[in-house]
Structure formats: C-alpha cells, structure tokens
Amino acid sequence: MRVVGIIAEYNPLHNGHIYHMEEAKRQAGSEFCVVAMSGNFVQRGEPACTDKFTRAEWAVMGGADLVVEIPTAYAVSSAERFAEGAVRTLAATGVVTDLAFGVETEDLNALYHLADLLDREPANLRVYLLHHLKQGKSFPRAQYDALSDLGVPENELEILQQPNNILAVEYLKSIRRFAPEIRPLPIQRIGNRYNSTVLTGKLSSATAIREALLNGDESVYDTMPMSVAAAMRFDAQFPVTFDRFAQMLLYRLRSMTLDELAALPDVNEGFEQVLYRAARQAVDLPSLFELIKSKRYTLARCKRILVSALLHIPNGMADALGDHPEDLYLHVLGLKRVGRGLLAAMASRASVPVILRHSDLQNCTDVARASLAIDALSTDLYAYALGRELHRDAQSAITV
Fold first, then answer.
1. Burial letters 132-159, b for 16+ CB under 10 A, else e
2. Average per-residue pLDDT for the chain
3. Same structural domain for residues 178 and 58?
4. What is the pTM of this model?
5. What residues make up the domain containing 127?
C-alpha cells in the first residue's frame, strides 16, 4: 500500500492545493493521502486564517484521507525545525511511503545537491555562516552569502530565493536524517509565485489570496473550493488576523520578566532587552513590530518569538520533542470515512501514540503531554480571540 504524505498549512486551502493533492496521489500511485498540517498558528508567526479543525475539514473535503497536527512548537519554528517536525510526524505514522512537496525550480539535481551540502555542513560553511551572522545579517541572508563564499554556483543560490525551494531543501535534509525509508516526490508548482501579492485567476498564491480577502476583493473566491469560499465570504469572523490577539499579546509581554523573555525560543544576543522596552512603548501590533524588527531579527522571526511568548513555548521544547522518538504524538484533526482502514493500519504501525480523544493522553510521555498542553492553549486563545466558547484540544477528530 502506497500512502503519500503532504506537509501543509492550508492558510487558506485554495485551488493550487487541490491540484497538489491530486498530482501527489497520481505521481505516487498512492491509495491514500496523509496531511501533516500546522495548527492554529503558522510558520510565518501568525494565527492561521481559520482554526485548525475547520482547515482540517477543508483538507478532507479537498482530497486528504487523514489530517494530523504538526506540534505547535515545531509549527512556529524556523524552516529547518518546521521541516524536521513535519517529516518526523509523517514518518511516525508508520504508513507514509512518499512525501510530496511543491518546488519552484525545474533543476531537481541542484535541489538535491544543496540539500546534501547543507546536511553535511562542511567546516568552512559554518565558519562563513558565523562570519556573516556577526555582521548582523538574518539567517537566510547569512546562509546565502556563506554558500556563495563556499563557491556554490549562482544558479543554485537562486534556488534558495524561493520559499517553496527553501522548504524543499529542508524536507530533503529531514528525510535523509529521520525518514530514509520515505521517497521524496518534488512536484512543480503551477500558477504565480508563492510570495506574489497579485491574483492571477483561479490559480493564485496564498499570499495574494490573503491580501485579497483582507481588501474585500470578491474575485478571490474563484481561487478556492466552494466550501472555503463560502466560509470566507459569509462568516464575518474569517479571515482571522493577528490584530485579534493584540491585547492579550501585549499583556503577556508586559507581564514577563527579562529572564522569561530571554528563555523564549530564538532569543539571544540581548534581544530580550529590545522586547522588554518595546512591550512598554507599543500600544498596538504595528508599532510593536516596528520597534523590534531589524536586519538580523526579520519580521517573521519576531512574530514567531511573539507567538512563542503568547503560547508559553519554552526554549528547547522542539529539541525535547526531537531528543527521543517516543516523545512525539499523532493528534488526528480530520478523517475521511473511507480512510478508517488507514487509521487502523496506523494503530498497529505508528511508533508514537495516536491521539483521537482525551483518554489517549495516558499513552503519552511527559514531554508529549507538555507539548499537547501548548497545542491546547493555542486552541483556547484562538477561541477566546474569536469570542467562542473555550474547548480543549484532544477532542474527537472531524470526520467527513
């Protein structure tokens, strides 16, 4: 039995995602599709446009047979850590045979070469990287310049200028390290580029779609399946933006000590001082972002740090999940009825607990339960921001 895995955020689900799922199944020759999806907060360091259960339902309606959650500590991390958590989650199912991911380059050999180079990490690369980081550059810029110093050709460096390619390289690295039994399956991206802010018909980028939703451009509804378009058009609470969390985030920052700020993931070099001062000056999120972002601390990195503060994610949580394979878990968010056989296969093959209901938590380690508590808090705060009744996280999965 071949089962293709997909790593996604579906923020929101659009026609390009439907194409990707269909093409992944076709190219893999798979019977089933398992999606590892970010929860209520995404890798860009922002709340997802809708809650994770709604997005999981969309995914199942769009072609996924099973949706499992990427633990929040991984989901709001750097590209490398995000990829590691997502690949390890899919591998832990014990049933995924292929991993399909989108790429913007046709030069797959260059993609594999970059993944191999970064995985081996030659000594000189580390020296060059530290040199550029000390100049105050962001990690992506420092890595680009370090690879250039190492003599990597321009055509390969250009590959790292596209978000899907960056993630693809990280997926290939993580497959080699954590899941060598899984076959990588790069799929050429169609439509406009990932970061394009302009709609280009029915196949448009998620960035352009989010911009159009916020601007009230009604042509955006043609880019999404009907179920998604209806929710976005007629449910006034969607799309959810970071502004909904502004007051609780500023309160959280102002209540934290310098030591607590310093203990957040990705905070170093005295950045806790910057956060401490900014939190007491800013009265809204735009002013907070302006006070803390810099060349070294990009806006996305700052947002991930802020989400970590909001959700009480301690430094080292992602490392703790990776230290011992048994500390991971598979929280099922959505399931297609015809995929029950897949879930049954997971029950016997999965290397970690499968979480469908509260009683399944007793099978988890202390580290896993601590991570699940963060996932649960993300749901509670998301519900609070939307004015909904609070509910805990390990509820029954949505079945379509």
1. bbeeebbbbbbbbbbbeeeebeeebbeb
2. 92
3. yes
4. 0.93
5. 121-161
